Amino acid sequence: MSRSQRGPQRGLRLHGFEPYSAANGPGTRAVVWVQGCTLGCPGCFNPETHERGGGETTVDELFERIVRLGDRVEGVTISGGEPLQQREPVLRLLARIRAETSLSAVLFTGYRWSEVTRMPEAAALCDSVDVLLAGRYESGQRIARGLRGSANKTVHLFGDRYALHDLDAVPDAEVVIHPDGRLTLTGIDPLAPPPAPAGPHRQPVDIEVGE
């Protein structure tokens, strides 16, 4: 049975949820990792998120989980997996965050910006996020700073809530210790050393500031 025969996806396939992270965007943020990605970037930091499975949750349930955090978080970051392979529920979640809270929204996608802009939902997506980071992870261009895992990734800022220096101030990684003793390593991959720079300069950053 095709997706069109099944009807639209209602729930969100979820890999994980971290209520308090300092390494996935400016300030303290709730992080949603979706499950499922077919892009297959070699060296991806989250290979366990690639399979299509995962526990499905409704947008309403996830939104209420975020709202219960109150003013202890500055915003929500959506990562994966590939959020834009679940565009319908992701956009519904982002729309509720934008309309019903004062939280900011950051979204990571492995799609290139040129691919994002060709999606029918591109305008709605850009209206719903403050920061979008786009592009495949390229291990040969690894930089692991400013929320970019590799130098080819592009940063797109919408509105005036954040500037590039806000992203540069985000820690590259963190270790979250859960009450049950589990450890979660999150953030931009801190495990492998970056390639030696060709010269004494920073990699250029592509910035697009939206209205």
UniProtKB/TrEMBL annotation:
UniProt-listed Gene3D superfamilies: Aldolase class I
PANTHER family reported for this sequence: ANAEROBIC RIBONUCLEOSIDE-TRIPHOSPHATE REDUCTASE-ACTIVATING PROTEIN, PYRUVATE FORMATE-LYASE-ACTIVATING ENZYME
Name of the molecule in the record: Radical SAM protein
Stretches for region Disordered: 190-211
Keyword Iron listed: yes
GO molecular function annotations of the record: 4 iron, 4 sulfur cluster binding; [formate-C-acetyltransferase]-activating enzyme activity; metal ion binding; ribonucleoside-diphosphate reductase activity, thioredoxin disulfide as acceptor
Superkingdom to which the source organism belongs: Bacteria
Claim: Flavoprotein is one of the keywords in the record: no
Record's keyword terms, sorted: 4Fe-4S, Iron, Iron-sulfur, Metal-binding, S-adenosyl-L-methionine
InterPro entries: Aldolase_TIM (IPR013785), NrdG (IPR012837), Organic_radical-activating (IPR034457), rSAM (IPR007197), rSAM_sf (IPR058240)
Swiss-Prot/TrEMBL cofactor(s): [4Fe-4S] cluster
